Amino acid sequence: MTTSINAVASHNDLVTAPITYSSPTSGQRGFSTVMFISSDSTLGGSDRVRSYATAAEIATALAAGTLSASAAAAGTIAFAQANPPDRFLIGRKDGAETWAAAYALCVVDVLGVEAFGICIQSRVDADILAIGAAVEAEGLRLFGAQANNADLLSGAIASSTLAAMAAYKLTALYYHTTDTQWLDVAHMVDRLSWDPDETSAGWNSAVLTVSAYTGTAITQTQKAQGRTNNVNLMLPFGTTTDLYVDPGHVMAGLQISEVVTGMWVSTRIREAIADLIVAYAARGQKLPVTSGGQAVGNAAVFAILLRGVTGGHFVADQIQVTNVAITAADLLAARLRYTIVAQNVTSARSLAFPFTLSTTAVI
Fold this sequence. Notes:
- The protein is of the alpha/beta class.
- It has helices at 55-64, 69-79, 99-108, 125-138, 183-192, 220-228, 256-282, 291-310, 328-333, and strands at 33-38, 49-52, 88-92, 115-120, 142-147, 171-175, 231-232, 234-236, 243-245, 314-323, 338-344.
- The strands form three sheets. A seven-stranded mixed β-sheet has the order 2-3-1-4-5-6-7, with helices on both faces. It has a two-stranded antiparallel ribbon with strand order 8-9. Strands 10-11 form a two-stranded antiparallel ribbon.
- A hairpin with a 6-residue loop joins β8 and β9.
- α1 (55-64) packs antiparallel against α2 (69-79).
- The longest helix has 27 residues, at 256-282.
- The chain is globular and about 65 Å long.
């Protein structure tokens, strides 16, 4: 059974698996496809969304005039990453449509492919806020936005024009001095190209083919303020000339990989329990509101958590599914309840090595 991510009616709300995040320390639904919404591409004049599998297909569409130079540049950068996507979706904002309206139409018309990551061509604060609010309210996708607001690196985000999104859990904000660079696309592709059914994304890959910042180099003070504001910056790391985002946060401070893990496990639990209920019904049976029924559901949920351990999402021996005592209200509501706790695997990103130089032998 496939759980649709589009806002259409289904019985899936019978199964709830809300995710609560602890404070950050630094057919099934897919989680790997990024959609770029373009404001100046025709896509042939009638299609709302088109899917591209290679950079060569992007180049062909550019030559045919169905993709704009901006959309083609975004698509080319997507396929240039170390972990390129299987496909890259490009949607079309039509004329005077608002960005929120274009988003709503694009995510419905996704050619049978589920768009999980969203990026947009606009760098205008009002457009970013509109898409961020829509994604946050919907609760089904991640939005990677890019802005060139220097005040994001010089003061509290509460004082910026993007203050309204400061607590968003599904929006990642990237800073770049040049609007026609696609850091948002490059990093969203990097974070989402890992299939969470198989593995949780590691620390990071370099953002490739994205040009460096122009103007005065970013200072340590600006970097610290940007990090405080959970604004994602691309900076050097190690001895290479590559640039990295460390490691990529949403506005609320959670690592992007943690958010993907949470959305993945919640969805897979809902799918597993929905399949379980359908299987019982197909046999003319009931999943009883008893301790026996709870045990069946408990086992199904625990199996999903074990997949999370294998995939590097959760710490081994730190997953727990506990049955909640059945009450009279549960019997009336035909409801089974559980509490689920799982410890996220946090990727090491800061290592400290206090060093003492001695004038005498140490060994």
